[in-house]
Amino acid sequence: MDRVAIESFLARIPGLKALVVGDLMLDEYVWGRTERISPEAPVQVVDVVRQDLRLGGAGNVVNNLVALGCNIEVAGALGDDADGRSLRAMLEAAGIGIDGLVFAPGRTTSRKTRILASNQQMLRIDRESKNPIGADLEAQLAERIRALVDGCQVILVSDYLKGVLTEGLLREIFAIGRAAGIPVVVDPKGSDYRKYLGATLLTPNRKEAQTASGIAITDEASLCRAGRALRDSLRLEALVLTRSEEGMSLFLADGREVHLPTEAREVFDVSGAGDTVLALLGIGLGAGLSVEQSAQVANLAAGIVVAKVGTSTVSPDEILDVAGRRHADTDLKIKGRDLLGRVLERERERGKRIVFTNGCFDLLHVGHVKYLQKARNLGDLLVLGLNSDASIRRLKGPKRPLIGEEERAHLMAALKCIDYVVIFDEDTPLELIGALRPHILVKGGDYAPEGVVGKELVESYGGRVEIISFVDGKSTTNVIERILERYRDE
To answer: Degrees (nearest 5) of the Cα angle 152, 155, 159?
Structure first.
């Protein structure tokens, strides 16, 4: 996926809802300094500087979805204890739906305490229950999940083997997903994956895939055998095998295998990366992306998260920033309408004057360049609204454009005088102008100001219209006619 497609996907996430089911826990981080050895035993003394309590386990999947702006419901079993009540309060404070929570008397809510000094983890202390929940709680959870799934686009299952996701409950979840017609994506654990039969997609790491398949993974060939074996035995639509510093491998239902190299520049901490992959894969499928497209975005996000210390999340802007670095020369300038609106709002707050013009720009020529340079000189930023291929066909006939919208967008973005390019599909740019609210609306050629689309709108909030003449004799039509004339007899 290119940056524009990723941006379009991320912009749709706030309209989506995900149901997260699994082992909810608390992650406690105790940060400190260590400068001496204890006189009581040969261990380091950590002087505590600060403490941090976060949602962990399936809660970190929730954290990732919150950071993306997704709407979320959660379902799981907590202990009827202080940590359980704290966890529920944290979910409520984040605006997460908690109708799927059940409380189990006598059960210990999972809390993992990590002691860190100089960004190095020194010790981890776990307090939790691992025994399977009883039949009554299983039935309660299944009923709540059934009630919550309406309006959700995906179910994400985060299994940490803490006893909540029993085989019976998993069967119910998969059946609920099938009945609702939505994907069920699972981050699996354990050695026996038969309990996941009925899932849409699984996301094991290399070690987990080796254990579950019984195939020692020593090279690329054995990794592929393990991935194919798991996909086929569980009748999955896809299996996404995460490979840490080597990226991820996709085993698709049609037999294709796709290997994505890592996007990580630095690796400080891989904890929680699987939760990020689960969140992005799941919400990608929920948004209608293919498995391969969803995995590409998830791979980008995982590369960002492993460069952070502790289980972390990734924001849409971070994903877009990394995506743009692949083609920093032009991709960073090409933006979707919603994101560009937010960018321009920040520029207005900084006192920048925004200039807007639009057009097809099929077969770029010197007349275009001179016109755009003059437009840029009228303000601080020049935004180009570029007609989509479909809108050009409606305006100029079925033989145009000669160059597709993606290529045209990159060609225009390569011009120094253009700051941003946005593609629009309407016959006129009026709706786009309303969304971007430029200070100056520029049109070229023989237009009279009163005939410019958007004039009244721009002037209604204090903007103005400027007309710039094109260079005589320079037009796309003239270029096409010269080409036809020179080569007609050949």
So the answer is: 155
